[in-house]
Amino acid sequence: MTSSKISAAAVFPALSVKDTDNNEVFLGQRQSNTGWKMVVVYRGKHCPICTKYLNQLEDYKQRLADIDVELVAVSADSAEQLQEHQQKLSVTYPLYHGLNVEQMRGLGLYISEPRSEQETDHPFAEPALFVINSEGRIQIVDIANAPFSRPAPETLVSGLEFIRDPNNDYPIRGTYV
Predict the structure, then answer these.
(1) pLDDT at residue 177 greater than cutoff 90
(2) What is the spatial distance between Cα 141 and Cα 8, in angstroms, rounded to a whole number?
(3) Start and end of every Thioredoxin domain (predicted)?
(4) pTM of the model
């Protein structure tokens, strides 16, 4: 299997997905007046770890807003699956659906097949997280191949608070070639 991972400092690609009202949105574009955007890729409604993680992130939404970072999450689920999943979620940030295999590959995500029909009915992305800076470049990228491998929200948000502090002048890391 070959895979090409998207690089830190790369421009986040223009990816079209759907919001909860089935409207087309561009994943990397900010929907608010914030300077930065955090895109959380989750496996889908079938994943209880994703449900827990998305609910935990809600507790950090205000701290992210305080440092000018917009929070959104996306999966490969259908509109119906997202609607069902929302019944288990207590989040007020935008949730998107319809991430397709081509888009997942373009982001360099790990993609899994469902283990059974009870799990889900389509290939899905394993967890990933992208923080896009005001220039549209990937400031932080975290791509995992297992549902339990993702950044702890407190560590992630504390790090972003440090990076966003103008006194720290923190560069994009991991760009040595």
Answers:
(1) no
(2) 6
(3) 6-165
(4) 0.95
